[in-house]
Amino acid sequence: MNAFAKLGLSDNVLEALAKKGFENPTPIQEKTIPLLLQGGRSIVGQASTGTGKTAAFGLPIIECIEEHPGHVQALILTPTRELALQVSDEINSLKGHKRIRVLPVYGGQPIFQQLKNLKRGVDVVVGTPGRIMDHIQRGSLHLDKLSHFILDEADEMCNMGFIDDVRAILAHAGPDRNTLLFSATMPREVMRIAAEFMGDYEVVSVKPAKSEAPLTRQVFHEMHDSDRLEALCRVIDAAPAFYGLVFCRTRRDTDLVADRLAERGYPAAPIHGDLSQARREEILDQFRRRRICVLVATDVAARGIDVPDLTHVVNFALPQDPETYTHRVGRTGRAGKEGVAITLIAPNEFRRLMFIARNAGFHIDKAPLPRIEDVIHTKKSRACSDLAAIMEKGKHAPYLDMARDLLEEGSSEDVVAALLRQAFGAELDPRSYRKINDRPVQSRNGSRKRLTIFMGRAHGMSPKKLVDYVSHSAQVPPFKIQNLRINGKSSTFTAPPREAERIMHALNKGGKGRPLVSSR
Length: 520
Prior knowledge:
The chain is of the alpha/beta class. Helix content is 43%, strand content 15%.
């Protein structure tokens, strides 16, 4: 902790940093913290996402403010509720034994609880512009005695149309304050805010060193637009352990892509502004704990999702501009870990991608999509690693007697192969995958039949289990089974007419009474 101690931080904060596992300050922290600890400084800081900006302004705030003086001392303005929660949590984790109250304030949360907490007394408020304006107008939040005003992700504030709210909030803040403005890029609107409200300020700029650039490998895959989802699945399947963000353009696309992935058995969920706050927080918690490994997001909703060990960022849809591309790509390849940024494009999007890359200052390589053989090889390698880990930890011990009984009835190769077939279904069979650009056989009008199967959640069915069951029972490739909906005691799905007839014949064969599968 010597490097942090040299910045002038107290023993209390150094202890908190040690508990969090911090060892050395990042460049933005090294440059910013001493300036803010001196007091009386307004700073414009430029640093990309994931460089430790929250601690760069959070640590000096903790050191400089008093314990419960009876008024709000610091306001941190963020563009999204997710970022407000993240910044609030980070400051709470860094304050150590210092008794300061930090309150996140954002829309989508009942306002009465916020009013109650503000009335009780808060030292640091972290909030979004709309809800902060609401409290100012209600008279529940007073900024005239602020010592610190922090504008975080200022460029994103401009992109999201909050600039007028930011001006109004700054106008309510008292003159005796330090103003800190942090931004990954410096568009004209951001610099206007600095000139209008910050007076004399110091610019602290940290740009990635050239040696850091290779940490994020950037590639693009080209395919027909109708193959985009299949290409995304291929990318996820070919990764040894995919853990990343998939960016879509609209909320509707986000829901659609997440639903299609979940139907195929991927641990995926959407995140966008139409979700309730409780549902958003639940999804983010599952993502951080890796219960969900594929988070399908809009650009706005992804702001504030700070997970340092993402393996991939996938642009399912091209971003609107170079700045957005920079923000997306900056979410992987961080904290010294390698990451991959993948962009999926149709042939007519090539020029636009090159324009974005050129203006963002990045080099993007074209790469072929992972082959079916690559996907199966990755899945086999992962299965072998998982089995080795189970044996090493002794978790297989309760099954040894059963294993001995099975080995008495057949060869070891046959027994293991049968168990793998039961566990993986058709996942390791190359015939189960559709070659991209090869259209599946459809009827002449391209229609699909909707089938109802009288098996659902009550029978232990999930989308993946249902696809495996139907595919194996009727010898139908899994990708032919789509649009699944799992209900309590029944489920529905669609299939091309020829495969639908094969499914009904196979699953209803020899049955008595009500058929297991019916069409409608």
